[in-house]
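Holo model, 5-O-phosphono-beta-D-ribofuranose. Inputs:
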Amino acid sequence: MKVAIIMGSKSDYPVVQKAETILQEFGVEYETRIMSAHRTPKVTEAFAANAESNGFEVIIAAAGKAAHLAGVLAAGTALPVIGIPMKSSTLDGLDSLLSTVQMPKGIPVATVAVDGAENAALLAVQILSVKYDTLRDKMKQYKAKMEADIIALDQEFQENK
Ligand code: RP5
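Output:
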């Protein structure tokens, strides 16, 4: 199981790293690359065309401003593409969000929240878990732990307020 994480610029990496951390937690192999729909269009197109034969099963694409990266990748592959709109501009990421989510019919991009790198990785794990049962079990454990942690926090909060 292998996920491609593509980011439009090195400046996206502090956010993108959070997706890497989640994939590590779930034991999912990933490769992180810098590619741009606008600055390196030929490289991006070639990556999308060869992603499946290179063993990738899901693509995560993080980009900001006029963020066409996820859409361009989705146009060039049958693999599922998850878009992370980056809050990298004077418009607080609204530009990235709309550029990523407002895809024309036929070319979906599963768009997470602005800077939502953790959810992008979790969604990638959930997509992969359709094929890999071990990942579905890990996802169930992840959710159960999250629930238990919050219940414990609430209990502590009630006792100490
Ligand atoms: C986008 O423009 C990148 O994804 C990044 O979020 C934003 C700014 O890029 P840099 O100017 O920091 O390279 O293409």
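The first helix runs from residue 13 to 25. The radius of gyration is 17 Å.
Archived with the compound record.
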